[in-house]
Amino acid sequence: WHQHEGPRRVKRAWVIPPISVSENHKRIPHLLVQIKSDKQQPGGVIYSIKGPGVDEEPLGIFSIDKFSGKLKAFALDLGGVTLEDPTDLEIIVVDQNDNRPLFRQDVFTGRVVEGAEPGTCVMTADATDADDPDTDNAVLRYSILEQGAAAMFSINATTGEICTARPGLDRETVGVYNLTVQAADMSGDGLTTTATAIIYLEDINDNPPEFTKEEFSMEVEEQAVGVDVGKVFVHDKDLAGSPNWLAKFTILEGDPEGAFAIRTDPHTNDGVLSVAKPLDHEVRDRFELTVSVQNELPLEPAAPASPWALATVRVGVRDVNEAPVFRENPRRVSVLEGAPPGTSVTTFTASDPDTRQLQTLTYALLYDPADWLQLDPHSGTVRTKRELLHPSAFLQGGWYIALLLARDDAEPPLSATGTLSIEILEVNDHAPALQPTAGVVCGRPGRGGNLLLGATDDDRPPHGAPFHFQLSPQHPQLARNWSITRFNVTHAVLGVLVELPEGPYSLPLLLRDSGTPPQERQQLLNFSVCHCGRDGTCEDGVLAAATAGAGVTLEALMIILGSTILLLALAGLGAARARGRRRALRKGLLQRSGDDVRDNILNYDEQGGGEEDQDAYDINQLRHPELFSPRAKPPMRRDAPLSSATPPAPRKLPSSPSDIEDFINEGLEVADSDPSVPPYDTALIYDYEGSGSVASPLSSIVSSLTDEDQDYDYLSEWGPRFRRLADLYG
């Protein structure tokens, strides 16, 4: 009441007593509270509510009697006019312990190394509770219901963390622990639930490997290499396949030569013994090895110390048949060339390694390409079957190679091959031979009066060059007209000391090699003394110089080389024509055929008239042109060294192609019946090539320049084809 205004009525609010209700109430509907508006109207008041639990989710939880009132109520008169302002009603739901704890997973897994110290935490097994966390309904406590005989683990009652409780965790004893864990609400006095905790112990290297027994026995064949003999078995308590389990083996004693090796089988961890070097039963038939084993990784410091495990391995070497052996292979021997048949070469035998078995060896020739040897099958003695000749296509650098086979009589038999290398020693059994045996020389002292002589020898060094040339000691008078000076190790120069008449000559020479003992030979040098020109060279044509055997001047060498190349080219072109005319030649001169004799002669290497036209070839070109001149002299013959005998009457020359055969046969008969002169002396008359060549004459083998004026050093720069010339003149 206010003093000045007088008494007035104060507005009153809703009458709403406190409201609370327990969850999970079983009697529905349950009267919570009654609300009442003080603005009572005639005819009554209608009440209504709205909000969560009424017309909002969750729907249908609360209701109100429209005449009595409940929750958020509205007071209206019967006409629908609001009598009171709406107000909020708070209903408190009282929590009950109606939810069990729930573990986050049914099975918890953890790992811890064996031997871990107490207090080592492994994992946390935690749970949740759906009740009001502000009440004891959600306060949880943890415990271990079951873990085996020894309580090795403990759990934190508040957090659920599981840790080791005592020492002595050994994976080799118990590798896995299964724990039953409980969670209870109401601080351990309410509802409960359980879960499983599995704890695995991780391995450490705390156990060394051990042999399954102290002695092992095995056997292996001799001569076997790289084969496995057997296994030694071990056991390791640590986790199989882990690095802590792997073993390594060592041969400590009994194998000083390293004949055996031992390795680890990665699947079984056992030791595998194998043969590293060939074993010989006859040398040693039994081995006794001391083998040790240990882990590849060192033991943990906490593991008890223990010595290496040792075992004795006895290996027997089994005897088998072995092939014969040639101790000296290849066998090298020497035999003089020309050794007579039956000459002993060597005794080449093998030995049988099987000394404890009675076996007999036999021998056979496996390879004897020249069929030079014979072999005793029982003693292995090799002898010559025929003369060993040198040179031979079966020799390689002077060595003859043969193969021998040695075979035992075991079952099955075994064999071995031996190589016999025979050196054919050179014997000085050949005298040097003059090469060439003919030539042409100018009959005037000087450069043109020199002839280069050469020699060859079938013997190999040192029984060949240097060669010694000299005039025959049986004819001392030769030294008045001739001289021989050494040119190099294989050549000498024959020089003219006095002016000599033209014609053929035969000069006896003595040739000797440098072998031991030296071999010598007397041989005739058949040559012609030509007509000398003013420059000291022959003027009788090209062929005379060619028969000298070698050109000592650069000009002669170049002409000879060019002629050779030209002849080779012409020979290829003429080969086809030669085949077609072979039949005509067979019916040629000697059968007096009716064919054109000139044509046959032209196409079968007849030099003819030099460079004159072959189409106009005349058979008279075969005759020396000087025979037809009024001043010509009959041909002279030199039948003895340095003699100028009276020439015989000239033979009748053929006047037509039909009597050429008689002319040739007559010349051959004269040459064959002459005991003092070789047939070449008579055949010289047919070597004339004509006088029509435009080329420079080669009748002299000596250059117009002296050797002192001519520089031959450039020959060494012309390549390998001129190497011989460079050696002669450089």
UniProtKB/TrEMBL annotation:
Report a single Gene Ontology molecular function: beta-catenin binding
| UniProt keyword terms in alphabetical order | Calcium, Cell adhesion, Cell membrane, Cleavage on pair of basic residues, Glycoprotein, Membrane, Metal-binding, Repeat, Signal, Transmembrane, Transmembrane helix
Main site of residence? membrane
Where in this chain does the record put each Cadherin domain?
54-103, 104-211, 221-326, 327-434
Q: Any stretches that span the bilayer, and where are they? A: 556-576
Q: Name one Pfam family in it.
A: Cadherin
A single cellular component GO annotation: adherens junction
The keyword Cytoplasm is assigned to this record: no
Superkingdom is Eukaryota
* Subcellular localization(s) per the UniProt record: Cell membrane
- State if Mitochondrion is listed as a keyword: no
GO BP, one annotated term? calcium-dependent cell-cell adhesion via plasma membrane cell adhesion molecules
Q: How does this protein sit in the membrane? A: Single-pass type I membrane protein
Residue ranges of the region described as Disordered:
627-658
Write out the function statement from the record: Cadherins are calcium-dependent cell adhesion proteins. They preferentially interact with themselves in a homophilic manner in connecting cells; cadherins may thus contribute to the sorting of heterogeneous cell types. M-cadherin is part of the myogenic program and may provide a trigger for terminal muscle differentiation.
Q: What is this protein called?
A: Cadherin-15
Q: What is the lineage of its organism?
A: Eukaryota, Metazoa, Chordata, Craniata, Vertebrata
